[in-house]
Amino acid sequence: MLVQLLPAVSRKGVSGGRKRSLAKVHRAAQQQEKSKYEVNDMNKRFFRDLVTRRSNAWTFGLCLTGVLVVGTIIAVDSSRISDQEEPETSMEQAYLDEDYQDEEIDNEAELTGGIGDMVLADVGGGTDGAEENTMDASSGNAVEDMGTDASNDGTEDVTAENTAEDGQTAENTDENTAEASSANVISEEALLAADVMFHETDTLLWPAAGTILIDYSMDGSVYFPTLDQYKYNPALIIGSQAGNQVVSAARGIVESVDVDEVNGLKMTVNIGNGYRLVYGQLKETAAAQGDVVEAGSVIGYVSEPTRFYAKEGSNLYFQMTKDQVPVDPILYLE
User: Which of 90, 110, 130 finishes a domain?
Assistant: First the structure.
């Protein structure tokens, strides 16, 4: 009996041990499965967090980029508007400056443009002027004294504000000088008596040492830097240092010594046969009205420039006319 019970007990013990082993294996399998799920959950959470962080970064980057783009567009538009307004302002200022400058030099242009006419008035129309206004020696001295006083006054500074007033004064002075000069036209008899007769084949001496700053031009306009304009030039503007000697280019008789605002102290010499020479921008004269001057003799000195030739610098204004018409002196200079 006992022998029969032992195998049964033994079988029961074996069965119970197997069940416990299976239970352990089952729990291990469950834990492994659970660990797998936990790993998967961790991977999912990591991926989700990574995507979330990257999404936030991309969103921030896009927002920052958008702000920079908008700021750049605004800056470009502002710069464009500023660039458009600046030329308009500059053009308006340029127009204002141009109008002011035109107004400022109106009288200057009239004076300078009328140089030829003034000289013609000095040497032409003398018959009527002589008949109506015969001047004696005392009136001639008065004109000479007036020229000396005016040359001293011409050295004073003149401001832009009273340019128009000065221009009107200079115009009136020139008219009075022209009237006086018309009575001083030297007769052909006096020229012949003094053996003064210039012929077309004769030549002229250079009146001063220097170079030509502005050439004679009655066929087209030339540029005057100080006036900042183009116009005709009936004379040679010879650049020369202040104080240089000015010599007579030919034998002649001093017809007048006077002053105008444009060319300062000037001397007109009648060299006969309808020819006259005008020397301007002088500071001293070594000959008086009525004197006979020889070719090469000193008749004056180069002055500091008038305000109408401030940029050109000191110079000699040298003009030649034939029967009241300007002639190019270059054609006769040696």
Answer: 110
